Amino acid sequence: MKNIVVQKFGGTSVADTDKIKNVAKAVIKERNNGNDVVVVVSAMGHTTDYLVKMAKEISENPSSREMDMLLSTGEGVSIALLSMALQAQGCPAVSMNAIQVGIMTEKVHSKARIINIKTDKIRRHLDKGEVVVVAGFQGVTDDLEITTLGRGGSDTSAVALAGALNAIRCDIYTDVEGVYTTDPRVVPNASRLDEISYEEMLELARVGANVLHPRAVETAKQYKVPLRVRSTFKLDNLGTLILGVDEMELHRPVSGVASDLSQLRIVVCDVKDNPGTAAVLFNGLANENISVDMIIQSYARKALNTNDIAFTIDKGDLDKAMEILEKVKKDLEFSNVFVDDKIAKISIVGAGMIDRPGIAATMFKTLADLGINIKMISTSEIKISCIVAEDKAKEAVIGLHKVFHLDSEEIAEVKGDLPPEV
Amino acid sequence: MKNIVVQKFGGTSVADTDKIKNVAKAVIKERNNGNDVVVVVSAMGHTTDYLVKMAKEISENPSSREMDMLLSTGEGVSIALLSMALQAQGCPAVSMNAIQVGIMTEKVHSKARIINIKTDKIRRHLDKGEVVVVAGFQGVTDDLEITTLGRGGSDTSAVALAGALNAIRCDIYTDVEGVYTTDPRVVPNASRLDEISYEEMLELARVGANVLHPRAVETAKQYKVPLRVRSTFKLDNLGTLILGVDEMELHRPVSGVASDLSQLRIVVCDVKDNPGTAAVLFNGLANENISVDMIIQSYARKALNTNDIAFTIDKGDLDKAMEILEKVKKDLEFSNVFVDDKIAKISIVGAGMIDRPGIAATMFKTLADLGINIKMISTSEIKISCIVAEDKAKEAVIGLHKVFHLDSEEIAEVKGDLPPEV
Questions:
Q1: What is the CATH number of the domain that holds A43?
Q2: Are residues A76 and B85, on separate chains, in Cβ contact within 8 Å?
Q3: Which DSSP string do the residues of A130-188 spell out, in sequence order?
Q4: In this complex, do B83 and A100 lie within 8 Å of one another by their Cβ atoms?
Q5: Domain with B155 in it
Q6: Is A52 part of the contact surface with chain B (CB cutoff 8 Å)?
Q7: Measured between CB atoms, which of A54, A69, A83 is closest to B76?
Q8: Is the Cβ pair A54, B95 closer than 8 Å?
Q9: Number of folded domains in chain B?
Q10: If you compute the radius of gyration of chain A from its CA atoms, what whole number of angstroms results?
């Protein structure tokens, strides 16, 4: 039995018929390595936007069941066209949508989770020597309802398929060349990482290096599927391999530096220091589905018996958060609320920082030497994040990138679809 | 239990989101009559053309399996959007594709025939008070392969569904107002027929009045489903009801006049008059899948022991037919072949012409009075067809329409999508 490789191509990789022919070449190249190949594709380029636009013309609030029915047609088009392109290049191929494969999900529309993937039909086609082209992003319930997987869906489909098929690797083809030590648009001599652990990738993904959705990385970690991020347009470049921390050859103290401008900071001043006040506040936020990232409670001012509580949330959640603060004002008895929306979260990530206490100190000293004031700090086992002023973000990233020896000799080539400009 | 009405809307009726909203109104109007409604829709306007164009860019000869996968996405879009439009107008609705319904077909791609339609899921949704919006044109095999039904597919889906559900009626909404006594572009005062029998409709469809595909009419006849052809854009107009000849109120001797310019005539001269010569020729044509419409063998010239054999075929089959004639030349010993591609087949159709021998005589006399020469004649129980010169077709249709009292007081309003201009 041959080894199986799962390849995933996103919307920009199959945006038009010429690009689809190019993708067919990448598939055939992998097949010529002697592996069985299963390909997962997203909808072509702007198809999803176009479908959403039509839905909005018809209904302000279309039902999520019908949205799933509508959007799932997008991958139906791309799997059929890619199969045709493979056949035209002499490679036996067959397309399969989620119903045909049996990508079983829970019955939740627009953000279903995969429960189980049936592999018998795919294996039968692979045994006949065919490449199997599978629709990403979509699933099906026991009673044949069509679902979609929500954000990061196609990557998740690919990784889950790789897990179910015991694939030796899942290659995520995209328009970046791999995972970089930081955004190459900020630091032109950012280095492409050859390897990175699932855990580091998760931390990087969460702080804004949106090469991969955290959900896909988590699924890969769960199934122990080695994941490769590579460019559709530079097939000779092997990209970055994401794998278990135990299998990594090299543990750098710091693998990457990232900045995240999506958050804002709220400081609630002079909160009465009674037991349970913090719970009232954060329960209120949680009930409204607002994710709180960093929380700092200042040392209580004993004379006044008050605290300051600072926390960060997504900028989009500000209005909802202020409503909740208004509601809990009586209980918390705070004096006033201060909102700071000009902040950046600067993070360094590295599986090798465990047991190296000097890393944090180096980060703080580097920022201090640059005259950058740290407003908040949070740490995990493999990540240290500091909140600084937004206009200092770029300088902070460049300084940290240099001090942790991440600079490359080469200047990275910058393409679209990278994280938002710092 | 309520009565069920099946409505079918073609591609031009759902060409854009405004038109889809309009279709939703027609559905709700029928539901307000107190009936359960199942709607069958085609792909939006030019979707199919666009998908075919992409397939051709990728492959000169795409596999029919992948073409079916590709094209079936078109109805996926329109059923979802129509369901959203119904919901937005306050009408509970649910979309279902062929796999979800269980429109079971044989495993033949691009022209599958329906074997069986499962009705349990549809009935369950109807019982909940929902309108069920079903994808036309597509089917599925036992092993979940997606098929399409080929020409006339969506009409056939609708009629077969109506049969399976014991619907009281199947309404085919289109952009013509019904079935006319002849093409209103040729005869502006053509009359819209209130009723016509399946048999007459079949004969009219076969001679060029392509309001409905013969396949859909045959299916309706088989299931005894009353079929109504009506306009999406004039909901007050009831169109034409097609039903069993026994249920018709009025049997006109002639219901319609049609002309068909798609054929040509081949005359094979001086064929040796031996038993079996005709069989050699027509078996050869049948083996190449060439449909022969009319055949006339002239009275044998006893002195020479030869015949002339004339027959008509579709213009597109000429090259293949000539190849076959070349092959059988030795057996048939004919002198030469004469091809006449400037012909028109003029037909009169009427369930009431049985047992009225004067009808044929009236047709021949009318043509003779107009100085139109008849090259071939064929008759069935409810149709008489004459081959005449192509440039006489219009004059013949106008003359026959008048002599059989089919002229209307009103001038028909002419829209697109009518049969090709005579």
A1: 3.40.1160.10
A2: no
A3: -EEEEE-SEEE-TT--EEE--TTHHHHHHHHHHHHTT-SEEEEEESS-S-BSS-TTTST
A4: no
A5: 4-249
A6: no
A7: A69
A8: no
A9: 1
A10: 24
Residue A143 has a CB neighbour count (10 Å cut-off) of 8
* Residue with token string 């040392």: A299
Q: Which chain A residues are closer than 8 Å to B60 by Cβ? A: 88
The set of residues, in sequence order, having a beta carbon less than 8 Å from that of B297 and lying 6+ positions away, is B278, B307, B308, B309, B310
The answer to whether residues B241 and B227 touch, using CB atoms and an 8 Å cutoff, is yes
Residue A257: alpha-carbon gap to chain centroid: 16
Per-residue exposure over B305-320, b if at least 16 CB sit within 10 Å of its own CB, e if not: ebbbbbbbbeeebeee
| Contact call for B62 and A84, based on CB within 8 A | yes
Subunit contact A84:B77, Cβ cutoff 8 A? no
Q: Which of B59, B72, B76 sits opposite A87 (nearest CB)?
A: B59
> Considering only alpha carbons, which residue of chain B is nearest residue A67?
B80
Round to whole Å and give the CA distance between A417 and B376.
69
Q: Inform me whether the C-beta atom of residue B99 falls under 8 Å from chain A C-beta atoms.
A: yes
- Does residue A16 sit within a domain? yes
Radius of gyration of chain B (CA): 24
- Is residue B388 within 8 Å of residue B373, measured between CB atoms? yes
**Is A404 in contact with A253 (CB distance < 8 Å)?**
yes
- Residues B55-113 pLDDT 10s: 999 999 999 999 999 999 999 999 999 999 999 999 999 999 999 999 999 999 998 99
Report the gap between the CA of B58 and the closest CA in chain A (Å). 6
The bridge status of strand B227-231 relative to strand B169-174 is parallel
Q: Which of B70, B72, B74 has the CB atom closest to A81's CB atom?
A: B70
Is the Cβ pair B84, A55 closer than 8 Å? yes
Query: Is residue B395 in some structural domain?
Result: no
Q: Is A245 contained in some domain?
A: no
Cα A14 from Cα A82, distance rounded (Å): 8
State residue A315 phi and psi, 5-degree precision: -55, -35
Give the whole-angstrom CA distance, residue A126 versus residue A110: 30
- pLDDT tens by residue, chain A, 422 residues: 799 999 999 999 999 999 999 999 999 999 999 999 999 999 998 999 999 999 999 999 999 999 999 999 999 999 999 999 999 999 999 999 999 999 999 999 998 999 999 999 999 999 999 999 999 999 999 999 999 998 789 999 999 999 999 999 999 998 888 898 988 888 888 888 999 999 999 888 766 566 788 889 999 999 999 999 998 888 788 899 999 977 776 667 899 999 999 899 999 988 887 777 788 888 889 888 888 988 888 766 766 778 888 999 999 899 999 999 998 888 888 888 999 999 999 999 988 887 777 888 899 999 999 999 999 998 888 899 999 999 999 999 999 999 998 888 766 555 444 443 33
On whether any CB of chain B is under 8 Å from the CB of A70, the answer is yes
Structure tokens at B112: 């599958």
Is A247 in contact with A241 (CB distance < 8 Å)? no
- Chain A residues touching B67 at Cβ < 8 A: 80
Give the span between the Cα atoms of A386 and A369, in whole angstroms.
Answer: 15
Taken in order A54, A59, A64, A66, the sign of the CA dihedral is: negative
Q: What is the ipTM of this complex?
A: 0.82
- What residues are paired with B379 via a beta bridge? B384
Binary contact (B80, A66; C-beta < 8 A): yes
**Residue B72 is assigned to a structural domain of this protein:** yes
